[in-house]
Amino acid sequence: MKKMLQVTLGILTAIGGFVDIGDLVANALVGSRFGMSLAWVVVVGVIGICLYAEMAGRVAAVTGRAVFDLVRERMGPRTALLNLAASNLVNLLTLAAEVAGVALALQLATSVSYLLFVPMVAFLVWFVIWRMPFEQMERMFGLAGLALLVFAVALWQLGPDWGSLVHQATHPTVQSGEGHPTYWYYAIALFGAAMTPYEVFFFSSGAVEEKWSTKDLNLERANVYVGFPLGGLLSIAIAATTAVVFLPRGIEVEHLSQVALPTVMALGKVGLALLILGFVAATFGAALETTLSSGYAVSQYFGWQWGKLVKPKDAARFHAVVLLSLILGVMIVLTTLDPIKVTEYSLVFSAVALPLTYFPILVVANDPGYMKDKVNSRFSNTLATAYLILITVVAVAAIPLMIATKAGQ
Amino acid sequence: MKRAPAVATTALAVLLTATACVGPSRTDGDFELKAGNTAKAVSSALGTARLAADAASRGDATSNYVSVVLGEAEQDASAAQATFDSYQPPSAAADKLRTDLDATLSDAIDGLTALRITARRGQLDRLSRISRQLGPVATTLEQISEKYS
Questions:
Q1: Where are the alpha helices (DSSP H) in A76-113?
Q2: Can you tell me the distance from the alpha carbon of B35 to that of A385, in angstroms, rounded to the nearest whole number?
Q3: Residue B38 Cα, gap to closest chain A Cα (Å)
Q4: Global ipTM
Q5: Residue B3 has pLDDT above 60, yes or no
Q6: How far is B5 from chain A (nearest CA, A)?
Q7: pLDDT computed for residue A1 by the predictor
Q8: d(CA B26, CA A151)
Q9: Are A111 and B145 an interchain contact pair (Cβ–Cβ within 8 Å)?
C-alpha cells in the first residue's frame, strides 16, 4: 500500500511538474496559430524525453552518480566543458523565463507590474532551495502544478468540435496565411519545450539526491512512462483551448494573460484562480529545477561537493553557483526584455543544444563499465539513435529557421 | 581560442538583432503586406480585448486580470501602429493606404484605451457595451488583413 502511494505520488508529481513556462507559451501560441496540426510534435517530444530521462535516471540509480559527473569522466574534460557551457547558457535563459513566468502569474492576480515581483520571486526561489528538503520541495510544487488540469476541464466545458480537433491533429496542414518555414520553426520550439535539457539534469541529479538504487528503477520508470505522457496530454489540452477559442478569431497568443483567457471564458473566476495557482506552481517549480540544475552541472563538472542533502557549508561552491545563476537570471528579466520572447528564444536555443545534452547520456547508458547488466536494450538503442539523428537535424535547422522567419513572425 | 567567447557573443547579438529587424518597403506590394500584417496584429489585440471585456461583464473575470489583458492589448496595438508608421510609403497609392489604415488603427486604439480605463475604474459591467461599439472597427481590420496579408 505504501509502495502504491509512493508510485501514485511520483506520477502525480511528474504530471504536475511536466509543464513549465516554455510548454505553456509554446503550446498556447501554436494552438492559436496552427490549431492542433502540431500536436504530433508534442507526441514525438514526449517519447524522446521519456526515452532519455529514463536513461539518465537509470544511470543515476545504477551508478549513484549524476549525468555530468560521468560525462566528464567518460567523454573527457573538453567535450564535457562544451556540453556544460551550452547547457548552462540555455539553462540561464530558461531560468530567466521561469522567474518571469512566476512574476507574470502574480501580475494576473494583482495587476501590479511583473517587474516588481521579480526580486521577491528570486529571493523565494533561493530561500526554498536553501531551506526546504528536496523531496518536500519537489512534491509540493509538482502536486500544486496539477491545478493546471483545469485546462482539460475548460476544454471540455468549451464544448469543442472534437472530430475537428482530432482531424487537425491527425491530418496536419499549414494554416492559410502561415508559411511552411514558420510551421517548422514552431515545431522546433515545441520539440525544444518537450525535451528541455534541464529536465534530464534535474531528473538525474534528483535521483542521486533521493538516493535511488536499482530497487527504485520501477518507480523511476512509472514516473517517466506514465507521468510524462500524461503531462504531454496536458500540453495538448493547452494547445486545444487556444485552438478552439483563438484560431477561428485570428487571435495570436503573445502574453501569458491570453493563455488563461479560454479557461476564464469557460470556467469563470474559479477557473482563473486555479489557473493562476497552477501557473505559479509550475513556473516556480521549474525555476527551482533550473536554478538547481545550474549548480548541479557546474559542481559535477568540477568535482565539487554538491546537493541539498549536503550541509551548505560543505557545498559552498554549489550554493554560490546556484545564487549566481539566480542573480544572472533576474538581471536578464530586469532588462525588461519581453519575457515571452525570452521564453521563445530559450526553447529554440534548447533545441540547438539538444545533441550536446543527449549524446553523452546515450554513451554512458551503453557503457557496461558503469552500467553492468543495466545497459540499454537493443530496442532502446535503436530508438535512441533515431532520436539522436532527429535531434541533430533539429539543432542544425533551428537557427536558420529562426533567421528566415524572424523568430516566427 | 581566447577570442572565441567574444566571437560567440557578437554572433549571438547579431543573430538576435537580425531576427528583430524590420525591413524597408521598396514596392507597393511590400507595403501592402506590411499593412495587412499590422491590421492582423491589431485585430488580434482587439479580439483578445473584446473577449476579455465580455467575460468581465458576465462576471467571469476579476478586474485585476481584465486590466492586465486590456493594458497589454492596448500596448500591442500601439506598438504595431508605431511600427507601421515608421515604414516609408513608396507611392501615392501607399500614402492613401497608410492614411486609411492609420485612421482605423487609431479608432481601435482609442477603443482599447476606453476599455482599459473603464476596467481600471472597476466598471466591469460597462465593458461589453464598449466592446460592442468596437465591432465595426474589428470587422474593418479583419477585411484589411484578409485583403493584404
A1: 77-110
A2: 47
A3: 12
A4: 0.89
A5: no
A6: 11
A7: 65
A8: 45
A9: no
Encode A203-262 in three state secondary structure. HHHHHHHCCCCHHHHHHHHHHHHHHHHHHHHHHHHHHHHHHHHCHHHCCCCCCHHHHHHH
Q: Residue A257: closest CA among chain B residues belongs to which residue?
A: B69
CA distance B68 to chain A (A): 6
What confidence tens digit (pLDDT) does each residue in A238-250 have? Answer: 999 999 999 999 9
Q: Is A78 on the interface with B (CB under 8 A)?
A: no
For residues A94 and A23, the answer to whether their CB atoms sit within 8 Å is no
Phi, psi of A160 (to 5 degrees): -75, 170
Average confidence (pLDDT) over A267-276: 97
Distance CA A180, CA A173 (A): 9
Cross-chain residue pair A255–B64, CB shorter than 8 Å? no
Which residues of chain A have a CB within 8 Å of the CB of B59? 268-269
* Residue A303 grid coordinates: 568535482
* The residue to which cell 510551421 is assigned: A183
The amino acid present at A118, given as its one-letter code, is V
What average pLDDT does the structure give for chain A? 91
Return the residue in B65, B148, B149 with the most chain A beta carbons within 10 A, the one to mutate for interface testing: B65
pLDDT tens track for A48-83: 999 999 999 999 999 988 877 888 888 888 888 988
| Amino acid in the structure at residue A220 | E
Answer whether A235's CB lies under 8 Å from A18's CB: yes
Quickly list DSSP for chain B. -TTHHHHHHHHHHHHHHHHH--PPP-SHHHHHHHHHHHHHHHHHHHHHHHHHHHHHHTT-S-HHHHHHHHHHHHHHHHHHHHHHHTS---SHHHHHHHHHHHHHHHHHHHHHHHHHHHHHTT-GGGHHHHHHHTHHHHHHHHHHHHHH-
Residues A402, B48: C-beta atoms closer than 8 Å: no
A390: closest CA of chain B, how far (Å): 24
Gyration radius of chain A over CA positions: 20
| Measured distance CA(A6)–CA(A48) in Å, rounded | 25
| Residue A274 in contact with partner chain B when CB distance is under 8 A | no
Q: Residues A371, A365: contact at Cβ < 8 Å?
A: yes
Residue of A nearest to B23 (CA): A406
| Other Cβ atoms closer than 10 A to A100 | 31
* Chain B residue set in contact with A, beta carbons under 8 Å: 15-16, 18-21, 40-41, 43-44, 47-48, 51-52, 55, 58-65, 67-69, 72, 76, 142, 145, 149
Tell me the C-alpha distance between A355 and A362, whole Å: 10
Residue A191 grid coordinates: 520539440
Task: Give pLDDT, residue B1.
Answer: 43
